[in-house]
Fold these 4 entries.
Entry 1:
Amino acid sequence: MIRTLIFLFLLVAVPLLAQHSDPAGAPLTLDAAVRMAVQHNADLQSARLEVQRSDARVMEAWGYTMPTVDLSGTFNHVVEKPKSYFPDAIYYPLVKLMDSTARVPRPTGQLIELPFSMSPTNSANAALNVRQILFNGSVFIGVGAAAVYSRLSRDLYHQKKVETVAKVRKAYYGALLAREALTLMQSNLRNAEENLKNVRLMRTQGIVSEYDELRASVGVDNLRPMVMQSETNFSLAVDNLRNTMGVGDSVAVSPVDQLMLQEADEGIITSADKTVLESNPGLNILRHQIELNNASLNAERANFLPTIVAYGSYSYTAIRDDYRFSTNDFYKTAQVGLNFSLNLFQGLQTSSRIEQAQLERQKTEEVKGGLERTLQMGVRSLVGNLRQARKRIEGQERTVETAERGYAIVTARFLANAATQLEVNDAQLALSQAKVNRMQSVYDYLVAASELDAILGRYPASAAEEE
């Protein structure tokens, strides 16, 4: 008897590794749990930030196609002027030309240090420079690649959201199963205590033996620690749910839904084998990854193409030996032009990078093909689990009804002294095990439905977000 009860407890218990806390708290429906997870889950928050970052990268990529305009200004003061030299063959004639009475030596081909510096003491400059890329293959390919990355980040967010919602649903169902197990154990304890009262009353009347009373008392004593353990399991399940939602220990919640069968859409189940290849987030991510591989390949090929850049500048410059600058001291210059560059040889680096990009694309395509096969096998397995759990539920509904009727009959017979305490215990154990099997089947069905939604990239309406 004791071994059977222990087996029943192990079957009911839901082992969840989480921190212990009091499960009592605010009423929480499954839809509310999903909404809270979408708002507070740390992984989803990180994925949202990555989406925003990818949008910024798109704007950055477009920025490379736009003109760049720079405004610069400089002022320079020479603290110590450099010395100036001039060939004596030119210097001496200039001196003679300026002063015909001056006596100058014959030129010897040497450099003469001038008594003054030809460098100005102060100089100022202001310039406006404009540069516009007219053609650069890598830049324009980068714009498309950034847009693909933006879509990729959104698929990554969708995948993370689908996974998070599925985890929350399974954690919620786990909490419901643990609560049903606790309710069942508490009901068994109440039944056992009521049976013990009846046995003791009948014992005082000499209807049953002392052995029957001992068996009834042992049954109650064995159930009490199992009820306590079920309470702990329920608390752990609620903690696991709260942690999965991402709300932490500061928020106390209590699941209020019932562990009831919610039929999955038969149309979705029937077409799941094809739908998974169209809507699975992981496959969409790989498709975008292949697009990025193609963009990388095209960017490497673009290195064989020329780069053409238009530029223009407009500047004001002035020089003086003092600080008394005026508008008349500045002179302006302007220029426009085109810059053309074409790489002719890079030591086969570009060809090697092109080959690497091609191999990277092939590798991603192989991963995509393998994932498609894995997903189709996974969908078939989940659909099989759904149908099997549904059949188990139908069979166990009848089993529970039969066990309840049997327990009612044997209890009435025991009160009429027509059955033994052992028969009562066996009937109660059979009823408890039938209820456990039914609960487990419903739980298995709901979990399989959650996993099927996840693999198909679906989630309930409660997880939708405002754009």
Entry 2:
Amino acid sequence: MKISKLRLGAIILGGGQGQRLSPLTSYRAKPAVHIAGKYRLIDVPISNCINSGINLIHVLTQFNTTSLHRHISRTYKFDIYSGGDIEILAAQQTAKNKDWFQGTADAVRSYWDRFEQMNATHYIILAGDHLYKMDYSEFFQHHLDTGADVSVGVHPMPSSTAPELGVLKANSKDEITRFVEKPQDPLLIDELSEVIDGETVVLASMGIYIFNKEVLTKLLKIQGDDFGKNIIPHAIETLKTSAFRFQGYWEDIGTIRTFFEANISLTEENPHFTFYDEDSPIYTRQRFLPGSEIRGAKVNHSIISEGCKIGNATLENSIIGIRSIIGDGVMLNRTYFMGADYYDDHNSKSIIPIGVGENSILSNVIADKNVRIGKNVKLTNKDGLNEYESDTITIKDGIIIIPKNMTIPDNFEI
């Protein structure tokens, strides 16, 4: 059953600074970060909305918004007969509010005059930087069946991860009885834990909420600027709140490590998350690029996007983004090479062209868009550094990151 477009409106929160994903967020908003070679994180919640029958969508933005706005405006267009609309709402100064968004709830509060006029009786609040597929109509039906004022999407997570999560406790009727933000005390974590299929887990808030319209109107008037820290705990104490237990794959792309592993895991034979699903596709911008050319390369468990030119290289557990140029003798292992926004001009005077030069070796690397890697380069973190930063290279969690537009000279090693 699909959700009536007149009943549930979607509000996607895309304004976070994403400092833990730096330097990938130095030039773009966190939801605009590229995943799987050709998509952006924002494509996930928008596609989930479309696949769930929701076509009344608003995206709230704040930091480094240019590429995010451009991507959304070029990708998502509803025709005049569908009655749908996707609108970008950026942080702005008004007569009532002269500050930027102070938190997730404050972002919604800042535009409440507009949201209140939406032809919707309920709102689903979504994060713009999570990787998962959910039919929101099932979530909405659960909300209606339980008679809840507020519903929270929850996902079982290992108890060891509790200190980094908002953790809830729910009874057999899915009524939320307790909420603790990032519990640190082991005894408290034990109290919040439960055993599911033989594993000790906690119910983690996914940062996905459904509110009745009149309830959200009242909740936004209380003090506090964040849904997870302020609004939801208050709602649990004063209103009927329900937990929707989501059993599918879900990953909060919050750090370089989670971003890297979520992408590389896509190259597995049976990944937890897949883009190969005709019933619930992930949409993105159509670029009309030619098919990729592969000349003698050995490719194993890797994803190659369109518009690439790959020579006699070896690719292992790697993702190759659009317009990537990979030279002969190159070896890529567990590497996410994001590709390029354009092809080099044949008359370019650049000494090192966009792409990876001959006989270079990359292992456990994230190479952002438009990087130029010379010949005989070795990016393998040979000294096993966990953290490092220079003008050209960053290492986080042992993963080498080459920032956007960076040039790595011939014979460089790290």
Entry 3:
Amino acid sequence: MMRPGLPIASPGMTVGLLGGSFDPPHAGHVHITKEAIKAFALNRLWWLVSPGNPLKSRRPVPIAERLAAARVLMQNPRVQITDTENRLGTSMTADTLARLRAIYPGVCFVWLMGADNLAQIHRWRNWHFIMDTVPVGVLARPGDRISARMSPAARLYRYYRLSGHASQMLAHTEYHKQ
């Protein structure tokens, strides 16, 4: 059953999920959003503005301010700025993904992250669940490629890596549909 205030998605759609504190949202977020839509053939992309980041010591600006700033910055009809984690009562990516998959059966989600996050995802709670549950689209940022490729997650999941030519099929890969 759909919860009020959550984005709308239909079975068969490909939806990219870009999570983060967006404190503040910036041109880099916009750039990787546009690149992800093209590279991974996404129908929609949701910015999941999180209530906070457990790996950061500093508390973020209030979520209402970050949502408003993100909506001013990101002007694209395929992108929705959301407070989904706030509405679901989740704060960890694995929990959010589990809930979204239950609420949206048949939607092909792709978790999106910068290479800097791939380099440290092994510090996230239940990171194996994330990697095993949804395809992960990694967007390289200058200077992060080597550390990301040498990360524990990249080494462990190296056999699932798609070539750049195959990136548009990411949402439809079969290994994650358990």
Entry 4:
Amino acid sequence: MSKRQFNPLDPVVIEYAYRQGFFPMPHPTTQEVLWFDPNPRTIIPLDGLHVSRSLEKSMRKRGYQTTWDQAFDAVVRGCASRKETWINQEFMNMYHEMFVRGVAHSVEVWKSGELVGGVFGLHFNGVFNGESMFSTATDASKVALVELVRILNVARVQLFEVQFMTSHLASLGAIEVPALDYHKTLDEALKVVVSWPDFNARSPQT
């Protein structure tokens, strides 16, 4: 009888890895799954999101609507639809399975009925691991992030991790922390039992 082949993207493996502070990405050439625990680590303080006046004006002016967990797979596809992306089909399948299990969540941004932006990630107790975001309209990904932070605060999530620093994230208040500090915060946040809010019955909000 043949042995069962180890699948690094099995949901059980994924949850264990994230709880230890690791996250996967495929090798750009071989597609082999690699594990990362960067130092420093990037987080967005849930009381420190920076919403500029220009972004506030843009949010009011453009009339975007937001929903939650209503088009998860479409958000993942949007994040993967770039010339260079680490989200291959195997990762899309894994994220879909995590969504079915109630572990993965998304925020969608709509304009006139069209999906124009979004963000998604994985939720484990008091921790939310942001995976990726996309935008096809001005500031739509920022709108998604602002809404996500609002949801995380409603849920009383303790830690919002976003992997690597980018100029986009820095402009929104993301900070880098030493890996040791991140792991201590992670361990404490995982002890906090946090249920994801049930927004499905609510109407989209502007």
